[in-house]
Amino acid sequence: MAISIARKTLLHEWRRFLPASIAIAFSGVLMTAQGALLLGIVSANALYVTQSNAAYWVGFPGTQSVDLGRTVKADAVTDLYAEANISHVEPFLLGSGDWRGGHGGGVSVTIVGVDTAADGTALAKVLPPEMRNRLTEPGTAAIDRADSSKLSARLNDVVEVNGKAVRVIGFIDGLRGLGGVNLVTSLETARALDSALPAAGSATYFLYDLRPGTDAADILQDLGNRSGIPRYEVWPADELASISTMYMLLDSGAGIAFVFATLISMLIGAVITSQTLMAAVAGTIPQYATLRALGVPFHSLRRIVIEQAGWVGISGLSLSLVISLLLAGAAAFYRVPFELRGSVIAGASLVVLLVALVACLLAVHRLRQADPATLLR
Asked: Cα separation of 77 and 47, whole Å?
């Protein structure tokens, strides 16, 4: 009986419950979009790691984030090559520069120096072998397509970086920086552009892989025992990415501000959902009062309300999912850091459904102590 009455009430009073479904959809989109933007922004802080294929990164001890790396001396390479099961060791450089384009003003850039070998692992997910080969030419660089308008750069433009000529030989996708701009070059070009970068043999990071069947824990222990005073630290790629993401989320002012904004959006969404649903359910109180006057127990009325809240929530969240997917498509088109994960959708949906359920139960709770005759007037 409860299910039948709940559905019939929704179908008959659909105009009353339609604003509630729209409110749930709006709340779901608000929470999902904020969560996806938060994940996209903090994850962008680990792009150097996540867009590379290397299994392990070697850097300065205590590095808080991959973009805050400091020089690792050449003797670290000696330790790496001393391990027979370590393969494909390559350096990775992070420097800085001032971009002076022919079509715009100066922009601060991060100079990213990578090994241009065809099998290079640094930024392998965004830098194809053909473009790596083109970067072997001295004084060439590639930039993210999303940053081309900021730099006013076109293909084959010759610009100045730290007063030295650089030619743009191509555009990549997936390395858009949070604040500055990433300028990808060969190791030799990077050192030529930024004199503060370590000389050949040293680097900001060293990347390496392991031969199949190697016990990674044994290698890490051997590297850790080679010196009484740590000269470098080794991280699995996913661990360094997580460290960089958490640094952006918890230790940077921008991350904390965005977390605060996300919490506010969740609160606003919850308030809108609860108030709209409470108003919708309160409008049907006379019908519930009639049922109670006919002898229907209160727990049966509560089941009706729970069923209604579930159907209203499902319809609203279905609309929310469609809109969120459209937003994700638009974000991808405009290259906005928007990481729509299933966990984000599930979390936002759970919060909205719980708010909807509590709001409906609070609205109908007045029936417990109220006189049915009074409610029917």
From this structure: 24
